[in-house]
Design a protein that fits this description.
This protein has 182 residues and is an all-beta fold. The protein has one domain: 6 Propeller (Neuraminidase). The strands form four sheets. Strands 3-4-5-6 form a four-stranded antiparallel β-sheet, with no helix packed on it. The radius of gyration is 17 Å and the shape is globular. It starts with 5 loop residues before the first strand and ends with a strand.
Length: 182
Amino acid sequence: MGVVAFVCLSLALQAQGGWELYYGGTAEDYGEAVVQTRDHGFLIAGYSESFGDDNDLDVYLIRTDVDGEVVWMKVVDEGWVEHAFDIVAAPDGGYVVVGDIVPDAATPSDMYMLKVDERGEVLWSRQFGGAGTDQAFAVTVAPDGGYLLAGRSNSFGTGQDDIYIVKTDAEGNFQWDQVFGG
Protein backbone atom coordinates (compact mmCIF):
# COMPACT_ATOMS: atom_id res chain seq x y z
CA MET A 1 0.00 0.00 0.00
CA GLY A 2 1.39 3.41 -0.90
CA VAL A 3 1.59 6.40 1.35
CA VAL A 4 -1.02 9.09 0.90
CA ALA A 5 0.01 12.18 2.86
CA PHE A 6 -1.89 15.26 3.95
CA VAL A 7 -1.03 18.26 1.85
CA CYS A 8 -1.77 21.78 2.99
CA LEU A 9 -1.08 24.85 0.88
CA SER A 10 -1.48 28.33 2.30
CA LEU A 11 -3.37 30.59 -0.04
CA ALA A 12 -3.56 33.55 2.33
CA LEU A 13 -3.61 36.75 0.30
CA GLN A 14 -1.48 38.63 2.82
CA ALA A 15 1.36 36.12 2.63
CA GLN A 16 4.42 36.99 0.54
CA GLY A 17 4.56 33.44 -0.74
CA GLY A 18 2.79 30.21 -0.11
CA TRP A 19 4.04 27.07 1.49
CA GLU A 20 3.52 23.40 0.94
CA LEU A 21 3.98 20.80 3.67
CA TYR A 22 3.22 17.11 4.01
CA TYR A 23 1.75 15.52 7.12
CA GLY A 24 1.18 11.89 7.90
CA GLY A 25 2.81 8.62 8.74
CA THR A 26 3.83 5.42 7.01
CA ALA A 27 0.36 4.19 6.01
CA GLU A 28 -2.64 5.89 4.39
CA ASP A 29 -3.57 9.37 5.67
CA TYR A 30 -6.29 11.59 4.20
CA GLY A 31 -6.95 15.30 4.65
CA GLU A 32 -10.61 16.10 3.99
CA ALA A 33 -11.22 19.61 5.38
CA VAL A 34 -9.34 22.59 6.73
CA VAL A 35 -10.43 25.61 8.73
CA GLN A 36 -8.44 28.67 9.69
CA THR A 37 -7.98 29.03 13.44
CA ARG A 38 -8.54 32.21 15.43
CA ASP A 39 -4.77 32.90 15.46
CA HIS A 40 -4.56 32.42 11.65
CA GLY A 41 -3.13 28.91 11.84
CA PHE A 42 -5.02 25.92 10.48
CA LEU A 43 -6.85 22.86 11.73
CA ILE A 44 -6.90 19.98 9.26
CA ALA A 45 -9.40 17.15 9.66
CA GLY A 46 -9.25 13.77 7.99
CA TYR A 47 -8.52 10.18 8.84
CA SER A 48 -5.44 8.03 9.19
CA GLU A 49 -4.30 4.45 9.17
CA SER A 50 -0.79 5.45 10.32
CA PHE A 51 -1.56 6.23 13.92
CA GLY A 52 -3.62 4.68 16.69
CA ASP A 53 -3.19 1.24 18.14
CA ASP A 54 -5.48 -1.03 16.15
CA ASN A 55 -4.41 -0.54 12.50
CA ASP A 56 -7.75 0.83 11.36
CA LEU A 57 -8.86 4.24 10.12
CA ASP A 58 -9.23 6.88 12.84
CA VAL A 59 -10.10 10.58 12.89
CA TYR A 60 -6.87 12.53 12.41
CA LEU A 61 -6.60 16.21 13.39
CA ILE A 62 -3.54 18.38 12.81
CA ARG A 63 -3.30 21.89 14.24
CA THR A 64 -0.66 24.11 12.62
CA ASP A 65 0.57 27.63 13.10
CA VAL A 66 0.33 30.25 10.36
CA ASP A 67 3.46 28.81 8.70
CA GLY A 68 2.15 25.24 8.66
CA GLU A 69 4.34 23.97 11.48
CA VAL A 70 2.58 21.35 13.61
CA VAL A 71 1.33 22.66 16.96
CA TRP A 72 -0.40 19.40 17.88
CA MET A 73 -1.72 16.24 16.31
CA LYS A 74 -4.66 14.21 17.62
CA VAL A 75 -5.98 10.76 16.72
CA VAL A 76 -9.54 9.98 17.83
CA ASP A 77 -10.38 6.27 18.04
CA GLU A 78 -13.84 5.54 19.46
CA GLY A 79 -14.85 2.58 17.31
CA TRP A 80 -13.64 0.20 14.67
CA VAL A 81 -13.38 2.83 11.91
CA GLU A 82 -13.88 6.62 12.04
CA HIS A 83 -13.69 9.19 9.23
CA ALA A 84 -13.71 13.00 9.45
CA PHE A 85 -15.08 14.77 6.37
CA ASP A 86 -15.73 18.34 7.53
CA ILE A 87 -14.91 20.79 10.31
CA VAL A 88 -16.26 24.13 11.52
CA ALA A 89 -15.18 26.60 14.20
CA ALA A 90 -17.63 26.52 17.12
CA PRO A 91 -19.09 29.88 18.19
CA ASP A 92 -18.14 29.20 21.82
CA GLY A 93 -14.59 28.07 21.04
CA GLY A 94 -13.13 24.82 19.80
CA TYR A 95 -14.15 22.99 16.65
CA VAL A 96 -16.86 20.58 15.54
CA VAL A 97 -15.84 17.69 13.30
CA VAL A 98 -18.27 15.45 11.40
CA GLY A 99 -17.96 12.22 9.46
CA ASP A 100 -18.90 8.65 10.17
CA ILE A 101 -18.14 5.91 12.66
CA VAL A 102 -18.34 2.14 12.31
CA PRO A 103 -18.68 0.81 15.87
CA ASP A 104 -17.64 -2.77 15.01
CA ALA A 105 -17.16 -5.08 12.04
CA ALA A 106 -20.81 -6.20 12.05
CA THR A 107 -22.45 -2.75 12.18
CA PRO A 108 -22.95 -0.18 9.38
CA SER A 109 -21.73 3.37 9.89
CA ASP A 110 -23.54 6.16 11.74
CA MET A 111 -23.15 9.91 11.35
CA TYR A 112 -20.38 10.97 13.73
CA MET A 113 -19.97 14.38 15.34
CA LEU A 114 -17.37 15.44 17.87
CA LYS A 115 -16.24 18.65 19.46
CA VAL A 116 -12.62 19.34 20.36
CA ASP A 117 -11.19 22.24 22.30
CA GLU A 118 -8.32 24.49 21.16
CA ARG A 119 -5.83 21.81 22.29
CA GLY A 120 -7.56 18.97 20.43
CA GLU A 121 -9.06 17.35 23.52
CA VAL A 122 -12.41 15.71 22.80
CA LEU A 123 -15.17 17.47 24.76
CA TRP A 124 -18.03 15.28 23.51
CA SER A 125 -19.03 13.02 20.64
CA ARG A 126 -22.40 12.00 19.19
CA GLN A 127 -23.74 9.44 16.73
CA PHE A 128 -26.90 9.68 14.61
CA GLY A 129 -28.69 7.41 12.19
CA GLY A 130 -30.67 4.24 11.85
CA ALA A 131 -30.06 0.60 11.04
CA GLY A 132 -28.37 1.27 7.69
CA THR A 133 -25.39 3.35 6.59
CA ASP A 134 -25.39 7.00 7.67
CA GLN A 135 -22.62 9.53 6.97
CA ALA A 136 -22.12 13.27 7.53
CA PHE A 137 -20.16 15.08 4.83
CA ALA A 138 -20.76 18.71 5.84
CA VAL A 139 -21.46 20.78 8.95
CA THR A 140 -22.39 24.41 9.50
CA VAL A 141 -23.32 26.53 12.49
CA ALA A 142 -27.09 27.11 12.64
CA PRO A 143 -28.52 30.57 13.43
CA ASP A 144 -29.36 29.45 16.99
CA GLY A 145 -25.76 28.32 17.69
CA GLY A 146 -26.49 24.65 17.12
CA TYR A 147 -25.32 22.67 14.11
CA LEU A 148 -26.72 21.33 10.85
CA LEU A 149 -25.14 18.16 9.50
CA ALA A 150 -25.68 17.10 5.89
CA GLY A 151 -24.93 13.69 4.52
CA ARG A 152 -26.48 10.50 3.27
CA SER A 153 -28.48 7.64 4.70
CA ASN A 154 -30.03 4.41 3.52
CA SER A 155 -31.58 3.75 6.93
CA PHE A 156 -34.92 5.32 6.09
CA GLY A 157 -37.42 5.24 3.22
CA THR A 158 -36.82 2.67 0.49
CA GLY A 159 -33.34 1.71 1.63
CA GLN A 160 -31.65 3.65 -1.18
CA ASP A 161 -29.19 6.45 -0.42
CA ASP A 162 -31.03 9.64 0.45
CA ILE A 163 -29.99 13.09 1.63
CA TYR A 164 -29.97 13.09 5.42
CA ILE A 165 -30.01 16.30 7.48
CA VAL A 166 -29.60 16.34 11.27
CA LYS A 167 -30.07 19.42 13.48
CA THR A 168 -28.43 19.54 16.91
CA ASP A 169 -28.16 22.07 19.69
CA ALA A 170 -24.81 23.68 20.62
CA GLU A 171 -23.87 20.60 22.69
CA GLY A 172 -24.52 18.20 19.81
CA ASN A 173 -27.80 16.92 21.24
CA PHE A 174 -30.24 15.71 18.59
CA GLN A 175 -33.13 18.09 17.84
CA TRP A 176 -34.57 16.85 14.54
CA ASP A 177 -33.72 15.12 11.30
CA GLN A 178 -35.07 15.11 7.76
CA VAL A 179 -34.63 12.70 4.87
CA PHE A 180 -34.95 13.86 1.25
CA GLY A 181 -35.27 11.39 -1.60
CA GLY A 182 -36.83 8.00 -2.32
